[in-house]
Each structure stands twice: as C-alpha cells, then as structure tokens.
Model the fold of this input.
Amino acid sequence: MTAAVAPIDHASRAARPERRPFDPDTRIWADTGLITFSLTAGSAFLLQTMEPSIAAVVDEHSTFRTDPLGRAFRSIASVMMWIYGGDEALAEADRLRVMHASLNTTDAHGVKHQALSSGPWAWVLHTAIHAFTEGNRYFSTEKLTEADKESYYQEVVQLMRNFSVAPKEIPATYAEWEPWFQDQVENHLVATTVAEDYLRVIRKIAPPKQVPAPLRPVWRAATTPIGKLQYFFTVGTTPEIIREKLGLTWTESDERTLRALGWIIGRTVPVLPERIRYFPIAYEARRLERDRARLRKIIDLRPM
Done:
C-alpha cells in the first residue's frame, strides 16, 4: 500500500537556517562519531544504491568494487568531517559538491543522470535519518522519543543546508518525513545491480592491493566473520520492502539474533573508553572541546 504523503508546503515555512558547523551540544555531535555508526552505514548505502541516478553514477564512477576498504574509510572520514570538522566541515561539503559536479553518466536506456541532481543529492542525507533511528532502535539502551526524533531531524536539516540541498527536497518536520520516506522506499527505489554488488562486496571483503598473495588466505580467514556480520547488520536494518525488492531472506530467528546482538552492543559500547568508543576524528574533536572549556574556565577565573 502506498503511503499517503501530504504535499510539502514551502511557502509557509520559516526561513531555513544558514550554513553553519555543528555545536558540541547537539545530538548529531554526540552520536555520529560512535563506532556503532558503522553498523547501520551499510543500510544507508544500500538505500542509496537503489536510487536510480545514484546507482547509475556509482556504477560508473565508484571504487566500492575494486577498493572497498579504502572507499569505506574515506567515506567514514568524510562523514566525521561533516559533524566534527568545525569550519572545515563546510569546506568538506563544498569539496564534495565540486567533486560530484562532474560525476554524470547515461544509463543503458539512454537516460542521463547527474550526481548533483537535487533529489539524489538530498537522498544521500535522508538515508542518514533512517540509519540513525534504526541504530537507536537496535543498538542503544536510550530509546528515542518523538521529540528526540524531531530534534535530531532538524539537525539533519541543518546538515542538508550545509550541503546546499534544495529546500523542495526537505520535509519540514520528522512527522512529515516519515510518510515521505516510506513513499520513496516503496515507489522510487528499485533493485539494481549496484545494490546486489554492494551486498556481495561487504560479505566477502577483498584484500587491499598491499596484501601479498601468500597472505590472502589469512586475510580471508580473518575477515570472513566480519563480512558476514556486516552483511547481517545491513540486511537486518534495511526496510522490509527493500529486502523484498532485492529478494533477501530475513527470518524471525534472524530478527531475534539481531535484537540479542543489539542488546549486548547497546550495553557494551557506552562503557568502553572514549578513545575506543568514537572514531578518531570524533574523539579528537571531543577532546579538543574539553580543552577549550577548561581554558575558558581558567580565563574566566583570572585575576583582574
């Protein structure tokens, strides 16, 4: 059944906020840098590879097949810059827009696709909202309220502004976004060879070129469990209708296993040392903010 989607009323909205870096007191700052980000990043990318224009551009230009680890590390580092880079966060957004400006292609049916078309460009960031809410549902002990979801959504709206996403692509509230997102999933996303290839790539992680041939069996033995787990998390946190479109199997037993693993992860990650709990850029940004706060305190207490 197609979700009923109310038209987006842009005329009645207040003016969108200007481009600006994120403050340390935002939820997006607190949560994006956690290592659990990687558990739902696969679902977000899978949803991206099922958007026709993104799939066409990724098919021709992405290195995810030939350099999956390098591509993953670069993507994670870039996302960390969006949130923790300060003024350089805006420069990173501009760098990506410039880089994608030339990533255009024509598919087998003669349809032209542009990476910076407003819908596909926005869709990349919309998938982050799904990844965040799914990550919270499975891998966190602090469940989101509707107010939490709205607050986080507005922070992602700010991220979209930083990436110069067209206002017409942004529902005003999380309550409007939910049926809009469901409609996109049901009626716009399609099964693609890029999505199928991505699932294959994450399941069997290819060794970097630097790994000598004699050591590749060792690499396969070490990474096979990791690949299977990443595939499991990706499929499990992907909407059911997407699994149906791709012909993916997900059983009640799988769901129970995912919830059990999520229960363990949700209670283990918060007690890990901060240096391990967060990706490096996020950790250093958080440490720097504490140093700044301490300096501010000393300055405020100085003799006058």
